[in-house]
Amino acid sequence: MIVEGSSQKPFVAAPRRGADAVSMLTVYLVLLLAIPSGVVVTALGSLGSPSLIWGLVLLCWWTVHRLQARAPEAGAVSQPVRFTFVAFLLVVLVSFAAAMLRGQPDDQVSPAFTALLRLLSWAGVLLVAVDGVRTKNDLASMVRRIGVGAGLLATLGLAQFFTGLGIVDFFGTIPGLSMAGGIQERAGVIRSSGTAIHPLEYATAINAALPLVIAAAISRGFRSSRTQGGLWWWLPIGLISLSSLVAVSRSAIIGFAVAMLSMIPAVPARYRAAVFGAGTVVTLVVFAALPGLLSTTINLFAGAATDPSTESRTNGLERIPEFMSPSPVIGSGFGLFLPRYYIFDNQWVLIAIELGILGVIAFAAFFAAGIWSARNAWHSTDLDVRLLGHALAASVFNVAVLFAFFDALSFPIAGGMLFLLAGLCGSVRTVFAAETAAATSQPPGHQKAARA
């Protein structure tokens, strides 16, 4: 169990010179969460998303740094996250090449190239996070920034819910930019989407970040020297919780429940009753203040069997063999299964159709590698590193669950959060390995003193 009161000193960010991985990833995080995911540079069309462009910049930046390396780093840590992603990318490229050789309709070629470039953009995010975030200070900085970003995104979603206004629609009026998406309703209740195109993308972003925010709240070590007050970190937890409750979405509530349950082992025992008691009170207050919301939420689950979206997902499962039969091993091609054929609302099923059995195995291995790499820090003697590893593993697991409810890789924020979190899982492995190497290099007497 992870308890508060670690003897480790708080992570205080060291001064940085020039661009580093944390700075570059922070720019990506701002572009991903602050600018609506439906906004593109009009002249570039579907390739004009600011976060996509910056992801490609990150890939080039990482490549230049790798080429400039004079020699392989001594004691370099093996990274299952990077290995499984490369395996997944190879499956994508083989499937893509086979599809192009078979010949495709003109209106399918462009979406396929866009999907491939989007994946390369996410590769830049992943690789910079894995290889560039190498210290506890850097990890703590990224955790805090993701937490702040998710809290602000949840605040925007709540503002949309209570006002019924899109608020960020002004981006579509800026010359040179185009914007898709907007406020949606269900049963007469506003479905917030923040800066996301769809409410499910919004729910994935805030609930994927929730375990990290909880980790920042319960550990003194992950607070910056300027934010020693732990109460401030409970604010984004409350905002995300409230946003999930008013989202009018089964997926949002499931994602919230998975995030909270997966973090139970990390919450100090003396705080659990207070935390979940406060959560219960907040839930009761919300439903009492918005009585129509309670009945709508209950009907979401009670009427799930007859809900059109549920029926579509269920019926779609029966058609998987039909769509996989032309190429069951490597699939029909990444990004080539368009909505006009069928809308599965399930990224795992879409992977099976577009990339076949090999694609599903590689994609599942990528998630497993991220979770395993982060959870490997459980053996750390640093309680804060253990906590962060647990939180990152919980976040990636939550994303894996939520990907079963919509075609997530078609949405910039959902995909971007996955690859950023997976990259940080790999960086936890680097931090833990460095800690282990430092401990084994110390004299036995010094090790005993450190443990004391």
Keywords:
452 residues, mainly alpha, two-stranded antiparallel ribbon, 3% strand, disordered N terminus, disordered C terminus
Write the layout of secondary structure elements.
Elements: H1 21-34, E1 39-41, H2 50-68, H3 80-102, H4 106-132, H5 136-163, E2 177-179, E3 184-186, E4 189-191, H6 199-218, H7 231-245, H8 250-262, H9 269-289, H10 291-302, H11 308-318, H12 320-324, H13 347-375, H14 383-402, H15 412-441, H16 444-451
Antiparallel strand pairs: 1-2, 3-4
Helix pairs in contact: 1-2, 1-4, 1-5, 2-4, 3-4, 3-13, 4-15, 5-6, 5-7, 6-7, 6-8, 6-14, 6-15, 7-9, 8-14, 9-10, 13-14, 13-15, 14-15
Q: What's the Cα radius of gyration?
A: 22 Å
The 3D shape can be described as: globular
Biggest sheet strand line-up: 1-2
Strand content: under 5%
Order of helices and strands: HEHHHHEEEHHHHHHHHHHH
Largest sheet: 2 strands, antiparallel
Structural class computed from helices and strand pairing: mainly alpha
Mean pLDDT rating:
83
Helix share, percent: 55-70%
Low-confidence stretches: 1-18, 446-452
The number of helical elements comes to: 16
**Count of discrete domains:** 1
Q: How far do the termini sit from each other?
A: 19 Å
Count the beta strands: 4
Sum this structure up briefly.
The protein has 452 residues and is an all-alpha fold. The protein has helices at residues 21-34, 50-68, 80-102, 106-132, 136-163, 199-218, 231-245, 250-262, 269-289, 291-302, 308-318, 320-324, 347-375, 383-402, 412-441, 444-451, and strands spanning 39-41, 177-179, 184-186, 189-191.
